Amino acid sequence: MGLWNGIRRAVADLGERWIRRATMLNRVAAAAGTALWLAGRPSTWRRPVRSVLARQILFTGVQAIRFTLWVSAIIGLAVVLQTQVQLSQFGQTALVGPILVAVVVREAAPLLVNFIVIMRSGTAIASELSTMKLTGQLRILEAQGIDPFVYLAVPRAVGVSAAVVCLTMLFVVTSLAFGYVAGWLIGASVEPLDRFVDGIAAAILPRDFANILAKTVVPGWLTGMICTLEGASVVAAWTEVPQAATRGVVRSVAALFTIIVVVSLVTYL
């Protein structure tokens, strides 16, 4: 009898966890779809909403440029330079372009940029929304006839997505350029610049553009929505603020890895 009760409790707990997870996924999907629909309506983009969007792009995109450049320079040294040097030693310089496109352009750049944005902006969005909820600012917006979802969620999703796309392009260009210049400065046997650029350009296929967009726009959009929803989910205690920020980051990272894996499988298969 005790064994049977234990099995029943285990099954019940498992079912409860899956129900909570399915409910959370349904909530995020509904919010992301609603935000996408509202973002396509010109009436959504009134001056206050445009102001929130500009501030979000400034914080998520512009203010993250310095750190993104630093990370991209490290990748340029660790991947781009090493790839050129090692392949040139074996006379396989023709593989430089395809390998760098596969490693840097398709995978490393969108993954690392999304990580940077989640850690910087995801925590900030969740913490800000939590504070607004606990201090009653969301109720004040509603009392003034302002839809908090339109005013807070939509510009954050759009701003984070736009910032991730731009930072990823900057990351790719900087890492490739820094890696090549570093190899030239240390006297490594690298290809001429025109052949290096031609090799990269020839290795980029039309599907790579769709790959990069899917790995930047979708995770960025979901990061903005997940962190906004988690921040607005607090109830009464200030101790919920760090918990909401943690949940936002963890769930955004989980969504990022899921999207990266799915898009990579679709790209290569």
Distance between the termini: 50 Å
Number of domains: 1
The tally of beta strands, per DSSP, is 0
In percent terms, what proportion of residues is strand?
under 5%
Number of helices: 9
Structural class by SSE content: mainly alpha
Order of helices and strands: HHHHHHHHH
Give start-end ranges of low-pLDDT stretches: none
Spatial shape: globular
Question: How large, in whole angstroms, is the Cα Rg?
Answer: 22 Å
Helix content: over 70%
The whole-number mean of residue pLDDT values reads: 86
List the helices and strands and how they pair.
Layout: H1 2-39, H2 47-60, H3 65-89, H4 96-134, H5 137-143, H6 148-185, H7 193-203, H8 206-232, H9 240-268
Helix pairs in contact: 1-6, 1-8, 2-6, 3-4, 3-6, 4-6, 4-7, 4-8, 4-9, 6-8, 8-9
